[in-house]
Amino acid sequence: MPFLCLLYFVNYLDRVNIGFAGPNGMNDELGLTATMFGFASGIFFIGYLILEVPSNLALHRFGARRWLARIMLTWGIVATIMAFANNPTTLVILRFLLGVAEAGFFPGIILYLTYWFPASQRAKAVALFMAAVPISSAVGSTVSGLLISGGEGVFGLSGWRFMFLVEGLPAVVLAFVTWFFLTDRPEKARWLSAGERDWLSRTLEAERKATEAEHHWPLRKALTHPRMLALAFVYAGITYGLYALGFFLPTIIAGFEEQFGTDFSTAQSGLINAIPYVIGAVAMVLWARHGDRTGERKWHVVAPMLLGGLAIPVALYLGSPLATMVAVTFCAVGVCAALPTFWALPSTFLSGAAAAGGIALINSLGNISGFAAPYVTGWLKDLTGSQKAGMWAVGACMVVAAMVALVVGSRLAPARSPEPFVPQDESG
């Protein structure tokens, strides 16, 4: 799990570091308006959408170790080349190619976790993995700020270019580590005892057979059923809030100077940006553990979505930077807490190839909001001259998606508890 968190930390940072580059020199150097910046940020998800399902099916067939290493190598190369974008068109093309290269990474990990964790422990497992999102946003914002300010002029590059260069290289290195380090399935895990391997494999196989007997969702059904579209819409609502924060929170903090007369350095802005995500990471793990312990899924998705949806537009009507950041933190907590329990829902009725295709479909369709969020938010900012309209759109989308989650969640069974592992001696 720590290794998977590291991979996702690097993945998410390379995905959203454009949010730090924009207000710190990139927009001015490349001549980007808010709408153009939003388009460049969001075009990533179009390439991501196209290849999600085939990529996850390939992972299911060839194994996580090989396929994740391939994904990381290609995205690391593209992320590094972004340091040399010299006009808006080149930036947009590279962001699109970054999405193509990364396609399948996140749903591949979600699928991979179903190979290792029983259903009753899956939300906690996903939370531990996805804690890399708020940690990446927290630590990454500070690191990105330091790289931008400290990298100005290094190798003759602007600070934001130096940041892209440095933050793209770890993915290339970790691709080779993944190839030799990751274990595809429990039965191949030499670091488990024979009894542990047998118990885990037997438990997961029993769950798979029970799921197939109860629901019997073949791949075709998993790619066409209305329930999948509903879950994709719910996920779109969650990620709408996630990416709106990721791409525009640095811009909102930069706007404190004009709104409240503050004067923060780039490094200080990075630290302020980190606060909501640090608290969100803690809330994510604790909330997911509570959901696993109770077996309840529906309200563990709906309640935090409502919190986040109501908090984000309120943030822009408050009278101080502190009050604004408190409201933003509530939004971050809501978004982070909803994510891991949401990903425990599809595996309650999907398994095998259907799980591979279905999880990828939900992620790819849901991540359309990754394109819509920065583009619509930027467009509304240019149209109205204020961030308020865009944040209201974020809040409305999250609240509506929460209502859909309430309906869909009512039709899903609670997580089953597996038989406990009982260690045995060599004689059995």
Automatic annotation (TrEMBL):
It is a multi-pass membrane protein. The chain crosses the membrane at residues 31-51, 67-85, 91-113, 125-148, 160-182, 228-249, 269-287, 299-319, 325-345, 352-377, 389-408. PROSITE patterns: MFS. It is found in: Cell membrane. One of its GO terms (cellular component) is plasma membrane. Keywords: Membrane, Transmembrane, Transmembrane helix, Transport. One of its GO terms (molecular function) is transmembrane transporter activity. The keyword Membrane applies. The keyword Transport applies. Residues 1-413 form the Major facilitator superfamily (MFS) profile domain. It comes from the Bacteria. Component of the tartrate utilization system and may allow entry of tartrate and tartrate dehydrogenase. This is Putative tartrate transporter. It comes from Amycolatopsis antarctica.
